[in-house]
């Protein structure tokens, strides 16, 4: 385990040794991966969107039992129990609250009152400006190369526009996997990088080994962005199931969609009233249509089938384009050590060009 080589606004803000963030991936970023990242000096983010309230509390307790280092929890800002989950973070002294969507100003204020760092994920400079104005401590910006829900603008173009728009720490995500990427992000002016697929493909990740091998076999063109899973653009591995979804009609998808919605309701323990409340909030926050909201319940169930149960015939596999340049499964410590060491070397080399 290496000592701190790079001090940035992110390491100062959060109290981690290295400016490397393991993003909150549903069904992937559990206690084992998060604590391994934290113990290696990075910022591990626990994914709570696929957890019930009780499961989240249990997961936080488990992470705190595995590490004394800072870590974070990713929350759905539009969830019906978002405020209660924030109270849970406050109660257990979680250092960072990250959000997939912009949290309400009053939620940001409550977290900040209790010294919880608020770091929403955003996809445009105007959104970064908005949450910064509401008091967010930092933002994570993901370019189109990233896995899961993503936008059309690549990181190299999106990142500078966000850096120009705000004066809070910016974490760059989408397309990062090694020390050269970290050095490049820091050179742009970012305070660190967020990596998802690269951490999914570590020995500390609980994703089944057979599924990891499937990822390692893929190339740079083996991901696809589709809206057929949950109605929003979603980057994932090309599989037979994804190709089938891409070619199918809305009517043909209706039966499987209803079945997976019922399965999600059972797994989440939510009542129909709670599901309806979540749906109304999703429509308000994201402007989704009724059809898109019906599809949204597909995502957790299909990701679980692929990433937890290893059934790629029934599940989907979220993935960034970096899957095409990853060929090993290091531990989180090995990964972070080599990313930071290489970044420091590249920054020193670049500095030698100055006359």
Automatic annotation (TrEMBL):
Listed SUPFAM superfamilies: Inosine monophosphate dehydrogenase (IMPDH)
InterPro entries in the cross-refs: Aldolase_TIM, NMO
Keywords carried by this UniProt record: Flavoprotein, FMN, Monooxygenase, Oxidoreductase
Any one GO molecular-function label of the UniProt entry: nitronate monooxygenase activity
One Pfam short name: NMO
Recorded superkingdom: Bacteria
Protein name in UniProt: Nitronate monooxygenase
Organism: Nocardioides antri
Source organism phylogeny: Bacteria, Bacillati, Actinomycetota, Actinomycetes, Propionibacteriales
């Amino acid at each position: 385990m290496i000592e701190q080589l790079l001090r940035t606004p992110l390491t100062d803000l959060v109290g981690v040794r290295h400016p490397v963030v393991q993003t909150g991936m549903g069904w992937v970023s559990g206690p084992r991966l998060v604590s391994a990242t934290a113990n290696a000096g990075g910022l591990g983010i626990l994914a709570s969107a696929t957890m019930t309230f009780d499961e989240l509390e249990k997961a936080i307790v488990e992470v705190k039992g595995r590490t004394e280092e800072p870590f974070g929890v990713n929350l759905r800002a539009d969830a019906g129990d978002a405020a209660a989950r924030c109270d849970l973070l406050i109660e257990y002294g979680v250092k960072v609250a990250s959000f997939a969507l912009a949290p309400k100003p009053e939620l940001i204020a409550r977290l900040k009152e209790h010294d919880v760092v608020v770091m929403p994920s955003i996809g445009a400079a105007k959104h970064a400006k908005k949450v910064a104005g509401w008091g967010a401590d930092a933002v994570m910006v993901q370019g189109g190369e990233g896995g899961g829900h993503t936008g059309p603008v690549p990181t190299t173009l999106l990142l500078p526009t966000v850096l120009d728009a705000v004066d809070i720490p910016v974490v760059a995500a989408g397309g990062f996997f090694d020390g050269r990427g970290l050095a490049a992000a820091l050179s742009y002016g970012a305070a660190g990088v967020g990596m998802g697929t690269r951490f999914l493909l570590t020995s500390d990740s609980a994703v089944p080994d057979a599924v990891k091998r499937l990822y390692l076999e893929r190339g740079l063109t083996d991901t696809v962005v589709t809206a057929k899973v949950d109605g929003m653009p979603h980057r994932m591995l090309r599989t037979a199931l994804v190709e089938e979804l891409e070619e199918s009609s809305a009517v043909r998808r209706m039966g499987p969609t209803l079945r997976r919605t019922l399965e999600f309701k059972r797994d989440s323990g939510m009542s129909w009233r709670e599901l309806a409340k979540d749906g109304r909030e999703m429509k308000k926050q994201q402007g989704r249509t009724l059809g898109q909201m019906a599809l949204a319940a597909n995502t957790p169930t299909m990701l679980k089938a692929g990433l937890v149960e290893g059934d790629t015939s029934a599940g989907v596999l979220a993935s960034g384009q970096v899957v095409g340049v990853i060929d090993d499964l290091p531990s989180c410590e090995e990964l972070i050590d080599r990313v930071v060491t290489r970044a420091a070397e590249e920054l020193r080399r670049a500095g030698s060009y100055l006359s």
